[in-house]
TrEMBL record:
UniProt cross-references to NCBIfam families, sorted A to Z: Na_Pi_symport
Signal peptide: none
Keywords carried by this UniProt record: Cell membrane, Membrane, Transmembrane, Transmembrane helix
Domain of life of the source: Bacteria
Organism (species): Reichenbachiella ulvae
The keyword Transferase belongs to this UniProt entry's keyword annotation: no
Keyword Transferase found: no
Lineage: Bacteria, Pseudomonadati, Bacteroidota, Cytophagia, Cytophagales
Protein name, as recorded: Na/Pi symporter
Membrane topology: Multi-pass membrane protein
Length: 369
């Protein structure tokens, strides 16, 4: 008995130390990336701004990058770092955040294709997987034009930032130094490593790895204990399902994981799509925590873009979860797509290739011509 308690204590200590180490690496990599972007040559910055000056291209860059690395937490943290460095304006960054929300839905859609040998489960699995896609795509269709013409989301984030009294980018830079909390270490790395591009690659790998470690460490501990109680406890009403999605994703730092684990329950029919939808919407809210953490101790601009991520998902939640009649639309489209894909299975693969890869890459390539 005592041996079991001792093992549990050691397990908890390892769990806490792993999280703390990953969090330190996460904050360090963000500071290194922000500082390095500030030192990039004007030509590099001009090329970057030229590539994403078109909001439509910026949107699809966000989709493609997030689809490739399969982590909206990582891609939005990257955007926060670039905005904090002053290399990217808030208005140009907003479409990338919107695109990241679509790109992160790829995982659950791919997982749903694994049920292709069972027609009945395949239809429900596809519907469950793409429901996250359709929710984010529909939210972008509504909010992208409003942001493009009226800057609704970006202006609202600026107002909130001013309201909470965030310091300006200049004040933050003076307070923490060019390289933020890890000034001495990061300045040394910049001096030792001659290529700034290599430094950015190192910081990106460290950022991605730290988020993955946080995600896997927590998910192993939480998902196993919660899985058995999904249906009987957390899906009795929309509020509980939404809360589970938001809290679980906020803790795990990965909407890809929390939306993927629900696919088997949807495929087998244990939980209906109408009950799964609030959970997915909650997961979208929970995933914004990473960007908000990344923006702490940085500039006003960084907090602005982090709030954009939160507000985009919040407005989507209000539209599709609180407005009567509207909340049925993503579920209805998902069900129809599931039935269509069951009849013509190639549609599922074609959908993934076009939405997440062919369309974004084609537009990015055409923009460079």
């Amino acid at each position: 008995m005592e041996g079991k308690k001792e093992k549990e204590s050691i397990s908890i200590i390892k769990f806490i130390l792993s999280l703390l180490a990953a969090l330190v690496v996460f904050l360090w990599s963000l500071d290194l990336m922000t500082g390095t972007f500030q030192l990039l040559s004007s030509n590099t910055i001009s090329n970057l701004l030229e590539a994403i000056a078109n909001p439509f291209i910026s949107l699809f860059i966000g989709i493609f990058i997030t689809a490739v690395i399969q982590s909206s937490s990582t891609s939005t943290s990257l955007v926060v770092a670039i905005v904090a460095s002053g290399s990217l304006s808030l208005q140009n960054a907003v479409p990338m955040i919107m695109g990241a929300n679509i790109g992160t839905t790829l995982t659950s859609t791919i997982v749903s294709l694994s049920y292709i040998t069972n027609n009945k489960e395949f239809r429900k699995a596809i519907a469950t997987g793409v429901m996250h896609d359709f929710f984010n795509i529909l939210t972008v269709i509504i909010l992208f034009p409003l942001e493009y013409y009226y800057h609704i989301v970006s202006d609202l984030s600026i107002s909130i930032t001013h309201m909470i009294g965030m310091e300006s980018a200049q004040a933050s830079s003076i307070k923490h130094g060019r390289f933020g909390l890890f000034g001495t270490l990061n300045q040394y790395l910049i001096e030792v490593i001659p290529s700034k591009t290599l430094v950015i690659i190192i910081s990106m790998v460290a950022l991605f790895s730290s988020i993955k470690i946080i995600s896997r460490t927590i998910s192993k501990r939480l998902i196993g204990t919660i899985r058995e109680k999904f249906e009987e406890v957390f899906f009795k009403n929309n509020f509980k399902a939404f809360g589970l999605g938001a809290i679980l994703t906020g803790v795990i730092q990965s909407s890809s994981i929390t939306t993927t684990v629900i696919v088997p329950l949807g495929a087998t029919g244990k939980i209906k799509l109408e009950k799964i939808f609030p959970y997915i919407v909650g997961a979208n809210i929970g995933t914004t925590i990473t960007a908000l953490i990344a923006a702490l101790n940085k500039s006003e601009a960084a907090m602005n873009i982090a709030l954009v991520h939160f507000l985009f998902n919040l407005l989507g939640t209000i539209i599709f979860l609180l407005i009567p009649g509207v909340k049925r639309i993503p579920v209805l489209y998902a069900e129809k797509f599931g039935k269509m894909t069951m009849r013509y299975k190639v549609i599922g693969f074609f959908y993934i290739l076009v939405i997440f890869f062919i369309l974004p890459l084609s537009l990015i390539f055409l923009n460079r011509l």
